[in-house]
C-alpha cells in the first residue's frame, strides 16, 4: 500500500542513485533504496549501488543480505524499501526488474520501484518514475507525492557536471576489488550535499 | 592489464599530452568503455596537439564517444574530417551509419549497413551494428535476438556475439537459454573466470544448486581470492543446506562451508571500511 504521506528522499540517497545510473549510462543498472516508514511518510534514506551488468540470483542475494547487515548496524529501523534501475535503451518500463521487485515486495509490503527518466535530468527535476505496491499490483506513483527539495536537485546536477559519477563504487566493482566499498562513505566528503538533511 | 594500471593512467592523463594519448591507446587495446574520459582528453588532444600517426584513430575514438554522449559538435567535426581524408573507406561508411543512428534515422542507417554488406558480406561489424540498432530501439529485443541467431548461423564461433545473446536472454528472463549461450562460451574459453562465474550464477538462478556449486568451486580453484566465486559458493552451500538438511550437515559439507567462510573472512579482515565490517558480521552467521 502506498504511503498516504508520500515519499521523502534524502538528498544523498537521490544523488548517489542518480550518479550511479549516470556512470553506466549504456548498461542495465540496479541499486537498492534503504529507509523506513515514518508515520505516514516513506523515508528513503540511503542508496546502495549494486550492479551494472546482469543481476542474477546469488549475488543479488548476497548484496541484499549485506545491505540488511548494514541496516542493522546503522539504524535498526532501516530496511530495504525499494530498488532503482535504468536500462541502456532508456525505456522507463519496470518490466526488466519486475521479478526482483516482486521479491523485495514479498519482504517489505510497501516497496517501491524507481526507474530513471533521463529526460528530466537536464531540467533539474526529480528524475525517477516511481511504482508503488498497491494490493499485489504495481501502480504509478504520482509526482506530486514525492518530496525532494530543489537545492538537492541542483546539487545533484552540479555533481554530474563535474563527472563525480566516475567515483561511485557499486557491488560489481566491489566483487572485482574487495578494497572498494559499495557504501561509498567518502563520495560526498567536502561537498555541500554532505550537510543536507532530509526534509 | 595489471590491477591499478588503468587507474594510474587515468590519473596521469590529467597532465595532458602524451599521457593522455597513452590512456586513449590503453582504452582501445583493453576495450575499456568510458566515453566521458575519451571525450574529455581526446577533444583536448585534437585541439592542441600534433598527433601524427595517432590522429585519425583518436578522431574515430572521439567520434564514437561523442556519438554516444550526444555531443553533436564533436561528432560532426570528427566525421567530416574523417570523410574528407578517407572518402571511399568502408570503415568511415560505418561511422556514417552510426551518425544516422544517433539522429534516430534508423531506416537510413540500415540502408548504409546493407550497402556495406552487399559489397562486403563478411563485414561482421556492419552485421553487429544492425543487431545493435534493434537493441537500442526499445521494445525490439525479440528482433535483436532473432538477428543475432541469424548471425550465429554463419559466424558460429564468434564468442562476443554468443555473449551478447546470453545477456539479452538474461534481460528477457530466459535463463535456460542464457545458460546455453554461456556453455558455448565455456567451450570457447574454458578458463575465463567471467564466463564460469556467470554460468554458475545462471545455474543457481535456474535452481540447479548442485551444478552451480561445482562451477563456483572451479572458479575458486582457479582464483582463490575471487570474491564473487567465494560468495557464490557460500550461497550455494546455504541453499543446499536448506533443501537437504541431513546431507549437508555431514562433515564434508560443513567443512566446505567453513573453508569458504574462512577465505572470505581473511579477505575482509584486511579491509577497514564499513562494507568490510558488514561482510564480517554477515559471515559470522553463515556457518552451521
Automatic annotation (TrEMBL), chain A:
Protein origin, superkingdom: Eukaryota
- State the species of origin: Durusdinium trenchii
- An example of a Pfam family matching this protein is UPF0172
**Protein's name according to its UniProt entry:** MPN domain-containing protein
TrEMBL record, chain B:
Residue ranges of the TPR repeats are 159-192
Annotated membrane-spanning segments are none
Primary subcellular site in the record, as a coarse category: endoplasmic reticulum
Q: What is this protein called?
A: ER membrane protein complex subunit 2
Role, per record: Part of the endoplasmic reticulum membrane protein complex (EMC) that enables the energy-independent insertion into endoplasmic reticulum membranes of newly synthesized membrane proteins.
Q: Which organism is it from?
A: Durusdinium trenchii
Q: Which PROSITE patterns match?
A: TPR
Listed A to Z, the keywords are: Endoplasmic reticulum, Membrane, Repeat, TPR repeat
Localization per record: Endoplasmic reticulum membrane
| EMC2 TPR-like domain location | 93-202
Amino acid at each position: 500500500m502506498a504511503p498516504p504521506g508520500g515519499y521523502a528522499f534524502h538528498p544523498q540517497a537521490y544523488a548517489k542513485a542518480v550518479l550511479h545510473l549516470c556512470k553506466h549510462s549504456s548498461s542495465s543498472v540496479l541499486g537498492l533504496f534503504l529507509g523506513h516508514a515514518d508515520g505516514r511518510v516513506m523515508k528513503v534514506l540511503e542508496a546502495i549501488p549494486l550492479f551494472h551488468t546482469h543481476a542474477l540470483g546469488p549475488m543479488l542475494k548476497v548484496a541484499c543480505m549485506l545491505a540488511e547487515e548494514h541496516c542493522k548496524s546503522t539504524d535498526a529501523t532501516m530496511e530495504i524499501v525499494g530498488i532503482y534501475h535504468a536500462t541502456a535503451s532508456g525505456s522507463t518500463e519496470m518490466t526488466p526488474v519486475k521479478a526482483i521487485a516482486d521479491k523485495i515486495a514479498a519482504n517489505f509490503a510497501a516497496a517501491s520501484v524507481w526507474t530513471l527518466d533521463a529526460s528530466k535530468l537536464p531540467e533539474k527535476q526529480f528524475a525517477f518514475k516511481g511504482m508503488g505496491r498497491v494490493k499485489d499490483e504495481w501502480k504509478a506513483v504520482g509526482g506530486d507525492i514525492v518530496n525532494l527539495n530543489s537545492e538537492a536537485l541542483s546539487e545533484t546536477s552540479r555533481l554530474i557536471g563535474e563527472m563525480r559519477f566516475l567515483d561511485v563504487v557499486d557491488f560489481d566493482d566491489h566483487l572485482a576489488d574487495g578494497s572498494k566499498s559499495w557504501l561509498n562513505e567518502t563520495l560526498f566528503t567536502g561537498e555541500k550535499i554532505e550537510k543536507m538533511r532530509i526534509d | 592489464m595489471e590491477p591499478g594500471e588503468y587507474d594510474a593512467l587515468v590519473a596521469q592523463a590529467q597532465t595532458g599530452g602524451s599521457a593522455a594519448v597513452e590512456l586513449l591507446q590503453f582504452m582501445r587495446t583493453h576495450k575499456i568503455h568510458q566515453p566521458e574520459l575519451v571525450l574529455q582528453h581526446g577533444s583536448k588532444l585534437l585541439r592542441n596537439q600534433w598527433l601524427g600517426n595517432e590522429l585519425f584513430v583518436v578522431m574515430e575514438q572521439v567520434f564514437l564517444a561523442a556519438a554516444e554522449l550526444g555531443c553533436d559538435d564533436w561528432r560532426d567535426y570528427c566525421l567530416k574530417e574523417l570523410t574528407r581524408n578517407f572518402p571511399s573507406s568502408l570503415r568511415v561508411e560505418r561511422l556514417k551509419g552510426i551518425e544516422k543512428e544517433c539522429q534516430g534515422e534508423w531506416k537510413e542507417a540500415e540502408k548504409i549497413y546493407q550497402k556495406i554488406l552487399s559489397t562486403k558480406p563478411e563485414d561482421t561489424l556492419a552485421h553487429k551494428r544492425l543487431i545493435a540498432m534493434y537493441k537500442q530501439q526499445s521494445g525490439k529485443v525479440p528482433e535483436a535476438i532473432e538477428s543475432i541467431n541469424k548471425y550465429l548461423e554463419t559466424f558460429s564461433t564468434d564468442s562476443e556475439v554468443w555473449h551478447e545473446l546470453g545477456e539479452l536472454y538474461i534481460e528477457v528472463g530466459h535463463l535456460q537459454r542464457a545458460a546455453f549461450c554461456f556453455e558455448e562460451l565455456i567451450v570457447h574459453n574454458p578458463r575465463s573466470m567471467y564466463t564460469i562465474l556467470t554460468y554458475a550464477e545462471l545455474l543457481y538462478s535456474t535452481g540447479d544448486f548442485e551444478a552451480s556449486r561445482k562451477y563456483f568451486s572451479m572458479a575458486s580453484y582457479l582464483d582463490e581470492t575471487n570474491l564473487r566465486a567465494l560468495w557464490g559458493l557460500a550461497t550455494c552451500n546455504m541453499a543446499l543446506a536448506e533443501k537437504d538438511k541431513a546431507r549437508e550437515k555431514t562433515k564434508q559439507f560443513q567443512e566446505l562451508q567453513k573453508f569458504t567462510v574462512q577465505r572470505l573472512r581473511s579477505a575482509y579482515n584486511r579491509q577497514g571500511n564499513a562494507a568490510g565490517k558488514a561482510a564480517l558480521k554477515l559471515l559470522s552467521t553463515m556457518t552451521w
